[in-house]
Every structure is written in C-alpha cells, then in structure tokens.
C-alpha cells in the first residue's frame, strides 16, 4: 500500500450489496460530482447490471467508476457507455460486484457487506 493511502484516515469503505431489480443509482464522473441513473439487475441475461436513463452521458475515462445504489452501497462498476440519448431506455450491461468480484475477495469483504444482503 502507498504511504498516502495508509495515512489517509478520511477514507471510509462502503458496503457491497446486490443490485435492485430495477431502481435508482448513482455514477461518479471524472469531474467528481455524482449523477443519477436507473439500474436493472438482468437476472435472465447473464446477471449483468443494466445502466440507463443517466442524468449525464457516460463518457470515455469513466470505466472503473463505481455504481452506487440509492442507499449508498456499491453495486457495480462502469465498463460500457451508451452513445445514444442518456434519457432513453437504451443502456449498457456492466459488471455486478456481488456476481463478478472474485470469490476470495468477496469472502474477505463479507464483514463490509450489508447484513440484509448476506
């Protein structure tokens, strides 16, 4: 770990949770001001996280940005952008943390996961 990270007491880990079947979420753009979107857990389509109806476009460079549920838990990671109108239902499939993180990592993070999502 870097010394900067080790000495930064302001870093607070956030919980990891299952994504809602359909609901509001938040994305973190490059400028650092969260914006809203709609997410859907696609159980019948490989369990991906569908991101659509974004308040701002998802642009290049946002890959790896967190997707956070309306209650503040990390649910996914931005991987793909949709080039069409951000307000329409067309979106993109993105990784779902509870499904796509390696099992060993999830086991180590289990104490951070929301109690109601275990």
The averaged pLDDT comes out at 79
Q: Tell me, what is the CATH class?
A: Mainly Beta
Instruction: Return Rg in Å.
Output: 15 Å
Structural class: alpha+beta
Q: How many distinct helices?
A: 3
Task: Identify the overall geometry.
Answer: globular
* Uncertain residue segments: 114-118
The third-level CATH topology is: Thrombin, subunit H
Q: How many E-type strands?
A: 6
- Examine the secondary-structure arrangement and name the CATH architecture: Beta Barrel
Strand content: 25-35%
Could you give a short account of the major beta sheet?
A: 6 strands, antiparallel
Please give the share of residues in helix: 10-25%
What does this structure look like?
By secondary structure, the chain is of the alpha+beta class. The chain has one domain (12-106): Beta Barrel (Thrombin, subunit H), CATH 2.40.10.10. Helix content is 13%, strand content 25%. It contains 3 helices and 6 strands; from the N terminus they run αββββββαα. The protein has helices at residues 3-6, 97-100, 103-109; strands at residues 22-27, 35-42, 48-52, 66-69, 74-77, 92-94. It has a 6-stranded antiparallel beta sheet with strand order 5-4-1-2-3-6. It starts with a helix and ends in a 9-residue tail after the last helix. Mean pLDDT is 79; it is low at 114-118.
Question: Secondary structure elements and their pairing?
Answer:
Blueprint: H1 3-6, E1 22-27, E2 35-42, E3 48-52, E4 66-69, E5 74-77, E6 92-94, H2 97-100, H3 103-109
Antiparallel strand pairs: 1-2, 1-4, 2-3, 3-6, 4-5
């Amino acid at each position: 770990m870097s010394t900067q990270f080790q000495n930064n007491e302001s870093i607070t880990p956030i919980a990891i949770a299952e994504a809602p079947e359909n609901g509001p979420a938040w994305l973190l753009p490059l400028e650092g001001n969260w914006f809203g979107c709609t997410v859907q857990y696609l159980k019948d389509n490989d369990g991906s996280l569908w991101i659509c109806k974004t308040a701002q476009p998802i642009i290049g460079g946002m890959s790896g940005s967190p997707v956070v549920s309306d209650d503040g838990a990390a649910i996914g990671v931005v991987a793909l952008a949709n080039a069409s109108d951000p307000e329409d239902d067309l979106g993109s499939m993105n990784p779902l943390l509870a499904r796509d993180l390696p099992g060993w990592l999830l086991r180590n993070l289990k104490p951070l996961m929301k109690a109601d999502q275990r």
